[in-house]
TrEMBL record:
Pfam families assigned to the protein according to its UniProt record, in alphabetical order: Glyco_tran_WbsX, RgpF
Protein name: Glycosyl transferase family 2
Organism field: Actinotalea fermentans
InterPro entries, per the entry: RgpF, WbsX
């Protein structure tokens, strides 16, 4: 009998309340918003289904961008007062590693940047922008264009006068003294900058560093809290207004991910007011504060210069030619589905791939990111060598060690095996491993036993033979190993008859074939999904790996909170609650358990009105979860610091590390930031 816990009872009660309330109401009107420029309703009306961020069209024909060989450190310099540019450039000589200089020019005049006295500047681009949104909209343009994606760290500066400062009731000094404090704290001399970079190199949780006296709190919301709250709603993040801590003045050193993640806000010029000399209450001022909010959401700190200590020698970690140290082995799950097969032609129609499901999805509630659309790789076909090569290149660039391929084997018959077979036959230097995805294929895409297309049959071909089928893969020198042992995972371990004996047979065959000892692990799923029904030791396994949202926290969100469509009868769940619960569990991580994180889960593409949808996934919260996971395994031997990710390309389940139209490279940037920090 299944044990009923208090948490389980409360969850069922909450679901019942949501369902009954929806039936009584008949419809599910969304809570009204302000209708302001940044509100959800205004944003959706402007977007009209197009949620990609914008940047000036002229940039698309600018051959100076993107840089062919970018540095690890970028400097964003926004220019409104052209006469202040020389003094800022003189300060940049103090950065002790190679840098790229991205200049946004809103001065209204042509701008020439002379870097002849700056040997550390490797690349320069000057990009004209309209005078709107202060220095923030030009920054957003850089983010939306993907021009900040290469950078581990960014120094953000701008030509600053701030004449209003003299009249401010709470902030003393003049605009000039404030500007000089930024120069002194953020640049000043090479030793100072090296110490700041060294602090970033050695402190994974250091997010932003600004001038002394420039980190402000909740008393400085001014008129900007409503706009900030509206913008966070696009990410599914709730604002804790009293916890505000932000770098005022918009000049700081910052981890790249803090800015790169802004892509997910899908901002455009229409989100920003025309310039009228405002000193408060604009979208630019709201985003200035959100830099602090989002830094903290990512699990990072906002600090003033005097609180930061670092080893100057560590600054060279950010040199353009430095080989970064990897603190984590990140292995996403890989779905080899996106190519036509004879079986899918017969079951679903000629030429079917899951792109048909992906593009057919409809939003369940206002702001719901459906359909989820691919960016860089497009609607690809895995039969193309160039596509698979591009996937591998992306993974390598962002710190992904390799993929765990779902391996479909039905009584001796391989399905969707072409991508892994092509990889095996190639000389691509990329790590890989296999999970036997031993579930039934059904028309409901749920792996259960009803309406089965093809099922597991352990009588006609025993599971013992599986090891012989995969020997050619685990012999390969690129195969993922832990302490020399090839890693093999099984999804539904208890579905296999007498599986301890089967696992022992696999081990014996591997030794006989010269492969050596295997590391056999299973996916952590519930018993209803044929999860482990005994201890790891008595099962004959070496460990278990996470597979969220399986066995993770399910915390229901009221349909009315999001304005779910009246046809919807599925599950709306909180990504934030799942992550917070996962962080708590990581504090007591047991030996032999390899944790996993989840980009998101949203199977609207497969189930539409009956989907399971985790609301609130975004690159910042994801980064915090991954960093907590890295901390949890940091004490293990280097080879055992394995963390799995759901997933690389589960497009119909919303679990996607690959670039998307909405998020760009945001999730990949989060992975890189943690892996190499």
């Amino acid at each position: 009998m299944r044990r009923i816990t208090r948490a389980g009872f409360e969850g069922r009660l909450k679901r019942l309340r949501i369902a009954v309330g929806a039936r009584i109401a008949g419809t599910r009107p969304r809570k009204p918003d302000s209708g302001a420029r940044t509100s959800m309703s205004s944003w959706l009306r402007r977007q009209r289904g197009r949620r990609t961020g914008a940047f000036p069209n002229e940039w698309r024909s600018d051959e100076t961008i993107p840089f062919a060989s970018p540095s690890r450190v970028g400097v964003v310099l926004h220019v409104f007062y052209g006469d202040l540019v020389p003094e800022l450039l003189r300060e940049l000589v103090n950065v002790p590693v190679g840098i790229d200089l991205l200049v946004t020019n809103a001065s209204g005049s042509p701008l020439t940047i002379d870097v002849s006295a700056l040997p550390n500047v490797r690349n320069v681009a000057v990009l004209d922008v309209p005078n709107r949104g202060r220095d923030i909209l030009p920054l957003v343009y850089l983010v939306n264009a993907g021009l900040l994606d290469p950078y581990d760290l960014v120094l953000k500066v701008h030509t600053k006068r701030s004449t209003w400062r003299r009249e401010h009731a709470e902030l003393g000094g003049t605009g000039d003294t404030w500007k000089e404090s930024f120069y002194q704290c953020l640049l000043k001399d090479e030793e100072n900058v090296a110490e700041i970079l060294g602090a970033f190199a050695s402190q994974r949780d250091l997010g932003a560093v600004t001038a002394d006296g420039s980190v402000l709190g909740a008393q400085f919301w001014g008129a900007d809290e409503p706009g900030a709250r509206d913008l966070l709603e696009r990410l599914g993040i709730s604002l804790e207004a009293s916890a505000l801590r932000f770098p005022a003045g918009s000049m700081y050193w910052v981890r790249g991910i803090v800015l790169q993640g802004l892509r997910s806000l899908a901002l455009s010029a229409e989100d920003f007011e025309p310039e009228a000399g405002q000193v408060d209450g604009t979208t630019a001022h709201a985003i200035e504060r959100l830099i602090g909010v989002l830094t903290i959401e990512a699990g990072l700190r906002v600090e003033e210069r005097h609180t930061v200590r670092g080893e100057a020698g560590r600054a060279q970690r950010y040199a353009a030619d430095a080989e970064p140290e990897r603190c984590l082995r990140v292995v996403p799950f890989y779905l080899p589905q996106f190519h036509a097969t004879d079986e899918n032609d017969r079951w679903w129609g000629t030429g079917f791939t899951e792109w048909q499901n992906v593009t057919a999805a409809h939003p369940v509630y206002p702001g719901h990111e459906q359909p989820l659309l691919p960016a860089d790789l497009g609607f690809y076909d895995l039969r193309l060598d160039a596509v698979r090569a591009a996937q591998q290149s992306l993974a390598t660039a962002y710190g992904v060690e390799g993929f765990m391929y779902y391996y479909y084997w039905f009584a001796g018959r391989r399905l969707l095996s072409m991508p892994i077979e092509k990889l095996l036959a190639s000389d691509t230097p990329k790590t890989f491993c296999l999970m036997w995805a031993n579930e039934n294929w059904t028309r409901r895409w749920d792996g259960r036993s009803s309406d089965t297309l093809i099922g597991q049959d352990y009588d006609s071909v025993p599971a013992t033979q599986f090891i012989d089928d995969i020997l050619e893969f685990i012999r390969d020198e690129r195969y993922l190993k832990v302490a020399g042992r090839p890693v093999v995972s099984v999804y539904r371990i208890s579905q296999i008859p007498d599986y301890p004996a089967v696992l022992e047979h696999w081990r014996r065959r591997a030794r006989e074939e010269g492969v050596g000892e295997l590391l056999l692990i299973n996916a952590d799923v519930a018993k209803e999904f044929d999860g482990l029904d005994r201890s790891v030791a008595t099962a004959g396994l070496d460990g278990t790996h996470g597979f969220p949202p399986h066995n993770a926290k399910w915390d229901w969100v009221d349909y009315a909170d999001l304005g779910a469509d009246a046809e919807f009868h599925g599950n709306l769940l909180s990504y934030d609650a799942l992550v917070r619960d996962a962080e708590t569990r990581l504090r007591t991580l047991r030996p032999g358990f390899f944790p996993a994180v989840m980009v998101n889960f949203d199977n609207t593409a497969r189930r539409q009105w009956g989907a399971d949808i985790w609301h609130g996934s975004n690159p910042y919260t994801f980064r915090r979860w991954l960093a907590a996971t890295a901390d949890a395994v940091a004490g293990r031997p280097e080879a055992e610091r394995l963390v799995f990710v759901n997933a690389w390309n589960e497009w119909a389940e919303g679990a996607v590390l690959e670039p998307t139209v909405r998020h760009g490279h945001g999730y990949l940037c989060a992975v890189r930031d943690v892996v190499f920090s």
